[in-house]
Hints:
The protein is an alpha+beta fold.
Amino acid sequence: xxxxxxxxxxxxxxxxxxxxxxxxxxxxxxxxxxxxxxxxxxxxxxxxxxxxxxxxxxxxxxxxxxxxxxxxxxxxxxxxxxxxxxxxxxxxxxxxxxxxxxxxxxxxxxxxxxxxxxxxxxxxxxxxxxxxxxxxxxxxxxxxxxxxxxxxxxxxxxxxxxxxx
Length: 165
């Protein structure tokens, strides 16, 4: 398993396909697909939430929590990207089922998970959260040993607020 980037160290750029569910004023929500590049968020904090699978118990609770806490992240100037090994079609179904409002990115070959040191045999990847500072360095991380729990919005907000101090 590769070593995860350490705090204060630059995070290597990556590009992944993904999409986000957006409200449409008159009609059904639209799932907007595009490529997401880490460097497009330069100048703003970013939360990378790696999760093992769409529509699984803990992952659903985690992503619903982050989606419903979106205003907290936005107030801190941050965006949250969920990343898992499923494809974009799976992400769209997951986002629609639960009304998720955060971008969901597809790391189907686990290249990004390996770069962050969280690829795991059998489960694909470990549940982990990385906070990227506006300058593109790693500010904070949490990698779960078992993945049965996740970092709450309040913890992430506290760490993000530390970027402003």
